Amino acid sequence: QRHADLSRIEAGREELDIGAFSPADLVEQVVANYAARARAKGLDVYAVTEVGMPMAVQGDAIRILQILNNLVSNAVKFTEAGRVVLRASATDDGPGRVRLRFQVADTGPGIRESHRARLFEPYFRAPAGQDNDVAGTGLGLTICRRLSDLMGCTLAVVSEEGLGTSISFCLSLAADDADGAAPVTLQPRPVYVDGAVPEVVDNVRGWLNACGAIALPYRKPADDAEPAGAVLVQTWPPSTPEPRWTHQRVRVLAPGAHQDAFMTNAVGGVASAFNPVSICRAVQMAQDGVERGALGADGGAQRSLGLRVLVVEDNVINQLILREQLEHLGCVATLASNGDEALRLWRGQPFDLVLTDLNMPVVNGYELTRALRDGGHAGPIIGLTSSSAAEIAQRGVAAGMNQVLCKPLPFMVLAQTLHGVAKDMT
Fold first, then answer.
1. What's the alpha-carbon Rg for the chain, to the nearest Å?
2. What domain range includes position 247?
3. pLDDT tens digits, residue range 67-123?
4. What are the DSSP calls for 127-185, one per residue?
5. Are residues 165 and 76 part of one domain?
6. Are 202 and 154 part of one and the same domain?
7. Strand pairing partners for 353?
8. H-helix or E-strand spanning residue 356
9. Residue 135 and residue 122: Cα distance in Å, rounded?
10. What domain count does the chain have?
11. Pairing of strands 308-312, 332-336
């Protein structure tokens, strides 16, 4: 496959596919892809998306994803101890534009100075036992270099034997919100952030402060020192011992991590470990609960909407976040990982509403919707997608969906939508 990719690029047959994407979501996806493999080796793997990152930019997300996947895969494969970090930041690059910088850093063996100049040559591999960072087919980094050239950027390598390697690249892209507006508005209340990695704790605190909260590092309080209305955010990997906390808390989920004990007795929300926007939205839900927000004055009645919801989503973290949000709204959520599983569940029990991702293995959201309609399902079907393209929503509606919403789905958008569904059923 890599030989074909390289041949296509060198023949000039590779063209950029420009569209809207979320840098934070892209970073989350890359690190989530390799989190289980890293944890199995005893490595810490995490992402740091700097405050001010636009929620959406215009670029070739697939090519950027290909580069980052290759770099993170190499870092995890050849790092035997320590950590692998994917960092992303944005700076102003003129009216309506931002310069994105991505960096993959590891604590692996490093690359000899004599080999760095040849690092991106086709089929170059260091002698056996040397520079494990570049061992393999010898084409992965070459393809990364060709793709970066295609997008008008340069891969920069900083490495030192015995200490590790950092590979970074910058892109100038159009941004829908180049000023980096806060994704949510949080109440100016204390939010304590706990975790084992100071860089992650500081990054999450920065996002929470930018959204209006008073974010503070967690320190073990006296028995009576928990401020009323405060929220505790526990990042991953968590610190030990487990903090004693009786108020609202937000826990994060990391793919491949054994988190059963960590998630026990969770009070509050859940979020993705690798996406600070997801964490901010979970804190908003923990702060506001269901009593406030877009559901009107009789919020007490609306806390128990009583809807039976079939959630079809192949991402386990997204499943758990949606279930958490639905349970806050008094709904009963049943989870399916693909359309085929969803159809089996639907045939066995009634559902008031179907929430389905569009792109899934086995049976995707479009195929599922057509099958449900053909089978007689008359209730609402709502599609979920990370794309903001109008044609995606149009395709969903044409398949039989009532509407298509963009992920990550803010709690208040979900609440408003489900409140409307419940109202239509009365």
1. 23
2. 190-288
3. 999 999 999 998 999 999 999 999 999 999 999 999 999 999 988 887 777 677 765
4. PTTS-GGG-SSS-HHHHHHHHHHHTT---EEEEETTTEEEEEEEEEEEETTTT---SS-
5. yes
6. no
7. 309
8. strand 353-357
9. 12
10. 3
11. parallel
